Amino acid sequence: MQQRFDYFEAAPKAMGAMVAFERAVSGSGLEHSLIELVKTRASQINGCAYCIHMHTSDARKAGESEERLYLLSAWRESSLYTPRERAALEWTETLTQIANPPSSTHAPDDIFDNVHQHFDEEEMVKLTLLVGAINIWNRIAIGFGSQHPTVADAA
């Protein structure tokens, strides 16, 4: 697959607004490591290779361990994630898969309550905006065929 067209060139004002939104969300005060875990996990769920590549690379540069990145898709079975990270990952999965919830409600009270134990209301809004932003980026990258760099690209 190759990139279908340059979406920044096609809609510069809209993409500029998206970049400004991303900057606001990324600079919201949530921990950088948590932001990258959320972005990577949503990208895994959505199957966005471009975003998985970007956010695992960014996480590594910021000091994230290979082990935590490798086990991220199985975070429920791993003891490597803090209770706060686990709550954020569960919220990420819930909102990313909102069209196909595991229960009869899209955002169950028990999941909300768990997140609220680890995040105050302002942080919950920031976390929810973060999940929304990465889901939009995933859709942009997948829809327009964004391609991650490869070893061959670097040579």
Structure summary:
By secondary structure, this protein is mostly helical. The protein contains nine helices and no strands. The chain has helices at residues 7-10, 12-26, 32-46, 49-61, 66-70, 83-96, 109-118, 121-143, 151-154.
Instruction: Note the run of SSEs as H and E.
Output: HHHHHHHHH
Characterize the overall form.
Answer: globular
Provide the helix percentage: 55-70%
Poorly predicted runs of 5 or more residues = none
The amount of beta strand, in percent, is: under 5%
Structural class: mainly alpha
| End-to-end gap | 20 Å
User: Helix count, per DSSP?
Assistant: 9
Mean pLDDT reading: 93
User: What is the radius of gyration?
Assistant: 16 Å
* Main sheet properties: none
Number of strands: 0
Task: Please outline the helices and strands.
Layout: H1 7-10, H2 12-26, H3 32-46, H4 49-61, H5 66-70, H6 83-96, H7 109-118, H8 121-143, H9 151-154
Helix pairs in contact: 2-8, 3-4, 3-6, 3-8, 6-7, 6-8
Describe the protein.
The chain has 9 helices and no strands. It is 66% helix and 0% strand. It has helices spanning 7-10, 12-26, 32-46, 49-61, 66-70, 83-96, 109-118, 121-143, 151-154. It is mostly helical. The longest helix has 23 residues, at 121-143. It is globular, with a radius of gyration of 16 Å.
